[in-house]
Amino acid sequence: MKKEILALLVVVACWGPTLQANDWINAPISEVQKAAEQGDADAQLLLGVKYEQGKGVAQDDKQAVAWYRKAAEQGDVDAQGRLGVMYLHGRGVAQDDKQAATWLRKAAEQGDVDAQLLLGAMYVNGRGVAQDYKQAVAWYRKAAEQGNVDAQFRLGGMYFQGRGVAQDDKQAVAWFRKAAEQGNADAQLMLGVMYDKGRGVAQDDKQSYAWFSSAAANGYSDAVKGRDIMAKRLTPAALAEGQQLATRYFEQYRPK
């Protein structure tokens, strides 16, 4: 769903000269409309995006849904994901969690990382599907293994809590670290907690201080308390080292 529409594969248009997907940004809307009406899934997807965003046409969620549906029914993964999100939020269509889950599943099964993340969350919350933590873990893992930072953090949380998977602090730390190193402040906070408590890692006040500091610098206000507690535990020399470490983490692991 986050994929750029203009990075789609070559489009074999059914009218006039063949257009490439990356030529469509300059193509008249009439050409895109014509291709969409002739059944070109890429054109249908692009037209749906234009209607959703109000670019080149009047913003119209119902039209966006209509064109996403046509492309989705042809198996277009981006259209399936976008249609699922429209159902999830009730945009251009009556809000329907079951329909959202149906279309997100189709996209997720084709490898769409955002759909995998959303489907995992739906299983956690029992929205549109029966609550199932094991299924949530499975979909979070698929997204996390593709590098999705939110999925990495959530998968770490599932290991931390033992939901849908055997409780495992080392695995929790491993996934929190992957997310933290992509700048996720929640994961940085949790690494601070894990180092403070010695869960899944050797207890280390200096590391705890550095990760709490990184989370605080990235806007997580709750991390300030943890950072200050750690600062009081450290000797002046260790605190100076911790501050240097925190600066390195902050500079190296900024949000992406």
Task: List descriptors.
single chain, mainly alpha, 0% strand, disordered N terminus
Structure description:
By secondary structure, this protein is mainly alpha-helical. It has a domain at 155-256: Tetratricopeptide repeat domain (Serine Threonine Protein Phosphatase 5, Tetratricopeptide repeat), CATH 1.25.40. It has 13 helices and no strands. Helix 1 (29-37) packs across helix 2. The longest helix has 17 residues, at 236-252.
- Structural class by secondary-structure content: mainly alpha
Instruction: Compute the average pLDDT.
Output: 90
The dominant shape is elongated
Q: What helical percentage do the residues reach? A: 55-70%
* Alpha carbon gyration radius: 23 Å
